[in-house]
Amino acid sequence: MEAPLNRVEAAGLRTIDLTQLLPLPPVRPLDLAQFLEEGLVLREKAFRTALAQHDWKAYQDALVPIFVSTEAIVPPWAFLLVGMYLAPYARYYGVGPPEAVIERYQLLQFQELPLEPFRDQKILLKGCANLSPAILTEFFRRVMPVARLVFYGEACSSVPIYKRK
Question: Are 74 and 47 in contact (CB under 8 A)?
């Protein structure tokens, strides 16, 4: 019996899974409410003391979204102070909900992505990954000038996006 034909291979398509191309370090969100009085009031001296006593090593090589889960109004300098403590340990930290900080981290990773491996390639950008349109669009924006063809989706159902003329 003959093996089934792999249409992706037969077409010369290179499947790109952006979740593999943009690996995430462990994500360890940091809620500043834990450092506030009753989760709402920032008193500078108590805040500084709580930060100094916190175990920052727990964020080693992590991606750290910094956010406030309460309605507290936190001054900008507080986030900078937290960043000072995270800098020696975290791989990346940023302010905002985890999804937004993860997206910013992934967008920054594109700056280090070499484009030569995609030159003159027929690319199938895997569609089942749980990635934002911003991530997909940034990859496409960067790879379009060098790729020959770009499809989006899965081998069984792909959408042609770009063909170099």
Answer: no
